[in-house]
Inverse folding.
């Protein structure tokens, strides 16, 4: 375990670590960043990010990494950008905010992805809790406001899961249709499963539509099936895409 004063210190160490993993020096990394459209991430800038520079008062000053630079650096180093900030598996704890305790990387990862409500309060009896104070004088409770804003983060992975389940059921139904003369029971079972999966996807799409979320594009035949079976509350809210 390392001791990191700030997230910037942690990112700097991970940039160096992954650069060395790839056998790159800082000039190599600067060239790769330039190829990705960031020629301003020069050898000198990368040096200041990784090692910092000494200020007038003798204090080391590290050049911070901006959010848009994090994506470029992640791509240049062939590593998911969030792993530069939250190195799963190599750190026991990472910084959170200045006046709260460091936490394990996967917990903070789930905060970033919206999968989990941050538990900044505590610890109380060894447990961290979500803060419950209102936002401003008359605003909503903090945890409730977070849950509302994080809602899309849970909806899109679930959409993808249900869409993939429909695609698999669709393929099974097509295969069973070709064998319907010799396996009528299998054909009926596959069709029933497809319609069940399709209905599950349609319900999720209706929930996303009600929340005002954009629906990812779907295969035209799936949309036509949902429309034909009157499963969609707002059929015009969905865009089609070509067959996959």
């Amino acid at each position: 375990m390392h001791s990191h004063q700030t997230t910037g210190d942690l990112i700097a160490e991970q940039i160096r670590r992954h650069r060395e993993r790839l056998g790159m020096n800082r000039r190599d990394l600067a060239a790769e960043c330039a190829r990705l459209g960031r020629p301003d991430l020069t050898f000198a800038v990368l040096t200041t990010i990784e090692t910092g520079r000494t200020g007038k008062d003798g204090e080391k000053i590290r050049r911070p990494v901006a959010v848009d630079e994090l994506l470029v650096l992640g791509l240049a180093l062939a590593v998911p950008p969030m792993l530069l900030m939250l190195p799963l598996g190599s750190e026991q704890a990472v910084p959170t905010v200045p006046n709260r305790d460091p936490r394990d990387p996967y917990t903070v990862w789930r905060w970033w992805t919206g999968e989990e409500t941050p538990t900044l309060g505590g610890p109380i009896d060894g447990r961290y809790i979500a803060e419950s104070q209102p936002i401003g004088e008359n605003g909503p409770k903090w945890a409730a406001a977070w849950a509302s804003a994080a809602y899309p983060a849970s909806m899109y992975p679930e959409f993808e899961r249900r869409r993939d389940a429909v695609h698999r059921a669709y393929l099974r139904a097509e295969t069973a249709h070709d064998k319907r003369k010799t396996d009528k029971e299998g054909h009926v079972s596959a069709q029933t499963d497809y319609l069940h999966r399709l209905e599950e996807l349609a319900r999720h799409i209706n929930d996303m539509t009600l929340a005002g979320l954009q629906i990812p594009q779907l295969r035209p035949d799936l949309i036509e099936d949902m429309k034909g079976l009157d499963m969609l509350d707002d059929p015009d809210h969905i865009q089609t895409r070509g067959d996959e």
Q: What stands out?
A: The chain has a mean pLDDT of 92.
